[in-house]
Amino acid sequence: MDRFDFAVVGGGIVGAATFYKLQRKFPNARLVLLEKESEWALHQTGRNSGVIHSGLYYKPGSLKATTCRDGYRQLLEFCAEHGVAHEVCGKVVVATTDEQAERLKGLAERGKANGLDGLEALDATGIRELEPHIAGVAGLRVPQTGIVDYRGATHALLRVVLALQPLSKVMYGFQAVQTAQTEGGVQISGADGRQAVWAQKVVFCGGLQADRLARQDGAETDVRIVPFRGDYYELSPAARHKVRHLVYPVPDPNFPFLGVHFTRMHDGSVECGPNAVFAFKREGYTKTSFNWSDTADALSFLGTWKLFQKHWRYGLGEYHRAFSRAAFLKALQALMPDLEDRDLVPGRSGVRAQALQPDGSLVDDFVLVRGASGIHVINAPSPAATASLSIADRIVERLEEMG
Fold this sequence. Notes:
By secondary structure, this protein is of the alpha+beta class. Helix content is 33%, strand content 27%.
């Protein structure tokens, strides 16, 4: 059995950032990262919007707000040093009604409280000057928002560790399903029954499987991961000129998800979306993906039904957009009136690991808990990719506190 000082379970960007930060803190330690897939970052990290978030939306003083701003700085520095594709292109948040314009003022104040500089209030003319194809009654320019190749960043983090510590490993095809306390450490067993490693301390960054790993390890949490799929379209190559920055709507506090938006990607493409619909499989990326265990896990949880009860009208609208291209187009036209059906081509899908409380409320902030074997990242939604290096700093601090 291979023996290590630290093990990290999960090969998304939070796991890779933790792997990297542990190597920086303990340069002589032997580390292992365990990933059940054949490559890194195939789920949430590799299927997110690729946005480097500025910290505009988050409650001042929250873990999201503090780690987003710190992680933003660290991520840009890392990408510049290691040649990861990125660009600070800026974002325009657009209000299409007077009510949204009032909420936009509060959003600007929150951004200032979180340390953002250069925020610029826009009127309808100002929006058109920055984004000629976008219509709104008011806007907010956020110059610090950017785009990045998060899969590339994840790979770079892993590559740096392995170059600096040849005794460390990344083990693909290792699905950690059981942990057992042993003298001085933890034995981690794989799903195939043949693989096992030993480590003194373990960090679990399981993403869509985070709650299951935590419960298996005896962590005290009543949070359940409920998956929501987001479907995207892309602008056709001929229509990409219609978006210069990132273009976002004003969040509605009455609904759990942000709404459709336009996102420039690091490769020059422009994504439109997503919607947000309940997924019948945690790692299912098509409209027909289904898994009995995942579905039963979600629908046997009281919090899921309370969420549905509260937001059923919103949910029906999201499902309508999932199966109606015309409805999806209409939602996008609220921001871009001259968008035409021919401008859209089908894009990819992603699944968000939404953490729910038993009362149906969404867990808003990042959540780190301690289990019998180590630290668990229970909830890491957006902006976790942006904040990943800062989240990893907090994880390392928790490990040091464990002694």
